[in-house]
Structure formats: C-alpha cells, structure tokens
TrEMBL record:
Protein name per the record: Dicarboxylate/amino acid:cation symporter
A Pfam family assignment: SDF
GO biological process: dicarboxylic acid transport
Organism per entry: Alkalihalophilus pseudofirmus (Bacillus pseudofirmus)
Lineage, highest ranks first: Bacteria, Bacillati, Bacillota, Bacilli, Bacillales
Keyword Cell wall biogenesis/degradation: no
Keyword line: Cell membrane, Membrane, Transmembrane, Transmembrane helix, Transport
Coiled-coil regions listed in the entry: none
Length: 408
C-alpha cells in the first residue's frame, strides 16, 4: 500500500474532482486555472528533465567497448519486443476502440502538412534549424536525439569529460527532485482540472476509462502469459520455458506490489541468476532494462494514442498512424526511465508528436495511473526474459548448459 499510496491519493482526488464537476456543472470551470498551473509546471520542466536524464545515463556508462556485443543484442531484443507489444495492442484497440462514442470538443490537432516530402517531414521531426529551438517541448524527438549524442560525446571524452558527466548526473538528480516537488501539487491540479472537465463535458468521459481498462488488463495479462512463454522458448526451448516460469513469479509480484521496475532490479538479478543467465549479461540487461525496456508501457502508449484519437474523433486506422504510434511507443518506454512522475513525460511526447492540445495531458495522466500496475509487471518481467534472449544471441544455442548456475 505504501508504494501505491500516491497513485491512490491521486485517483481519490480525481474522483472528488469529478463529483464536484457533476454537482457544479459548468460552474466548475472556475477551478480550471488550478489545473492549468499544474500543466504549465510539467511542460516547463520537461525539456531539462529529458535532456539531463538521458545524457547522464549514457555519459556514465562504463566499458562501452567491452560490452558492445551485449548492448547491441540487448537493444535489438528491446526494440523487437517493444514493436511486438505495440502491434498486439494496435490489434486490440482496432477490434475494441477504447473511446468509442466519446466526443469532447477540444481544438482538433492540425494535420501534418502533406505538401512536405517524407524526407522533409523526417528532417523536421528529428532536427531543428537553430540551437535555441532544441529547448522546446514541440521539438521533443530532436531533443531526445541530441541528448543521446551529448551523452555519447561525454562518454567518449573519457577523463576530460568526467566533470561534465558529473554535471549531467547532478542535473538529472536535481530535475528528478524537482519533478517530485511538482508532483505534490498533482492531486490538487488534476482534481481541479477534472472537476472542470466533467462539469463542462459531462460524466461520459469517466465511462470511457472503464472501456480502456477492459481493453488493457486482459491484453497485458495475455501478453505476460503467452508472449513471455514464447520468448522463453525461443531463448532456451522447453527447458527455457520451465526455468523462466519457475523463477519469474517473485520479480513479477515485486513489480506489481512496488509499482517500480527499478525496485524490482534485485529480485530480477536473483531470478536471472537462477535461470542461468551469465553474470555479465544480467548485470547489463537488468539495470538498463529497468529504464529503457518497457513492453507494458509500449502497450499503454498505444492504448493512450488510440484513446485520444477516439476522443478527438480522428481516424486511427491507417498505416502511417500505426507506424508513428509504434515509434512513439518505443520512445515512451525510453523517456519514462524510472523518473518519479515520468509517465507524464511520455504522455507529453505523445501529445507533442501528434499536436494535441495540452488539455489532453490530464486525460492521459489518469489513464496511465489506472493501467500502471499490470504495465509495471510486464515491464519488469520482460527484462528477465530479455536477458535470456540476449544470452541466446551472445552465447549460442547451448547458453543454458554453459551458464554458471548456483550450487543446489
């Protein structure tokens, strides 16, 4: 209960705000400024938070050359499983749209200028024409790419870059604390915002959350049971499946109860040791996976995108929309990176990439809170099975026989 105390408090504030919205009707809009304050604070902090967090992680990695092969296969596994989880959720939301019948009259996002070539659109998405433009939430993808490059450059600078690496790490810690401070205001801000939202648009929005949860929970559980079984079989055949399910329950329960992939790292390291994963593989994959491998969050990202498309009465059924959604879901898993309130950062990425108005952020924030427990379980358990897949790729078919196992 301690781990979920804040999410429960947040949900309680939303419920109280929604009740006020029903009782006050359109008069509840007077509370909207309190919600706008929270939105502005979050949008203000997003740029330095993303820059420092991503740059610091990469700048402080050690032995990049020695671990190159492991990290290469790790990223391949993370990306492939992230794409698979995204496609699974795309199929689910296509069959059962999570916001069907809901209509909220926000400003409709502007469509992408089709007069631009695909190449020009890509250039606009991943770069900016001037240095100052990188410090804008509207250039989120370009900011992420630049943050990665700065991190690598700092790492490659070696001893001469050590002071700058310490600066990045210090900045990341300060930004995370700042997010934590801002999050204390979240119950007031989101409660007030939802009072206004329900008062103006009616309680139909609340029913749409139930539809979204009915879609997400079964899909996440089935992905956990079927998808991870398939991955374990690819990694080690029938013995791999057996050893995976024999040892994964402790990390899964830990993730479910703590609500944190980072808090599950010790349990995951112990479990993967019993699974036979080599020490050098598990020591790289498990800690990094807790930050950048989030199949559950990829599932949730697709759900959130489809949810917003439904609310704004936009067509979600196109190849271009699916491709962009898959790309965003992979980025969302990276951006979250275990930061307190980091889900908001991923949700901001969704909003800025599609051009939704900032009023859509609280809608996604509550949806993210509701699906967080199973998402975290899938995220953390996915790190363990990914370490098995990386072992198979690095060590070959007989990795389980060659792996060092603890004495029984």
């Amino acid at each position: 209960m301690k781990a979920y105390r804040f999410p429960l408090f947040l949900i309680a504030a939303i419920i109280i705000g929604s009740i006020l919205g029903v009782l006050l009707g359109e008069r509840a809009e007077v509370l909207k400024p309190l919600g706008d304050i929270f939105l502005n604070l979050m949008f203000t902090i997003v740029v330095p938070l993303v820059f420092f967090s991503i740059s610091a992680v990469i700048a402080n990695m050690s032995n990049l050359k020695r671990l190159g092969k492991i990290m290469t296969w790790m990223m391949v596994v993370f990306i492939v499983t992230g794409i698979i989880s995204s496609i699974v959720m795309i199929a689910a939301v296509t069959l059962s749209p999570p916001a069907a019948g809901v209509s909220i009259q926000f400003e409709t996002p502007e469509e992408i200028d089709e007069s631009l070539s695909l190449g020009a659109q890509i250039v606009q998405a991943v770069t900016v024409p001037d240095f100052v433009d990188i410090f804008s939430r509207t250039s989120m993808l370009a900011l992420i790419i630049m943050s990665v490059l700065v991190g690598f450059a700092t790492n490659l600078a070696g001893g001469e870059g050590r002071i700058f690496a310490q600066f990045l790490n210090s900045g990341a810690q300060v930004m995370r604390k700042l997010v934590g401070i801002i999050m204390y205001y979240a119950p007031i801000g989101l409660g007030a915002y939802f009072a206004s939202l329900v008062g103006v648009f009616g309680p139909e929005l609340l029913g749409s959350y139930a539809k979204a949860m009915i879609v997400y929970y079964p899909v996440a559980i089935l992905y956990f049971l079927i998808g991870f079984t398939l991955y374990a079989f690819i990694a080690g055949g029938k013995p791999g499946v057996k050893v995976f399910w024999k040892n994964i329950l402790t990390p899964a329960v830990t993730a479910l109860s703590t609500g944190s992939s980072v808090a599950t790292i010790p349990a995951n390291l112990q479990a993967t040791e019993k699974m036979g994963v080599h020490k050098d593989v598990r020591d790289v994959v498990i800690p990094l996976g807790a930050s950048i491998h989030m199949d559950g969050s990829a599932l949730a990202a697709i759900l959130k995108i489809a949810f917003l498309f439904g609310i704004f009465q936009m067509d979600f059924l196109s190849f271009q929309t699916f491709a962009i959604a898959i790309g965003i879901s992979l980025l969302v898993g990276t951006v979250m990176s275990g930061v307190p309130g980091g889900g908001f950062i991923g949700e901001m990425l969704i909003i800025t990439m599609y051009g939704f108005p900032m009023e859509a952020l609280p809608i996604l924030a509550i949806l993210g809170t509701l699906v967080d427990p199973p998402a975290t379980m899938v995220n953390a358990s996915g790190d363990a099975v990914s370490s098995m897949l990386v072992s198979r790729a690095v060590e070959g078919d007989e990795w389980m026989d060659e792996a060092e196992r603890p004495a029984s």
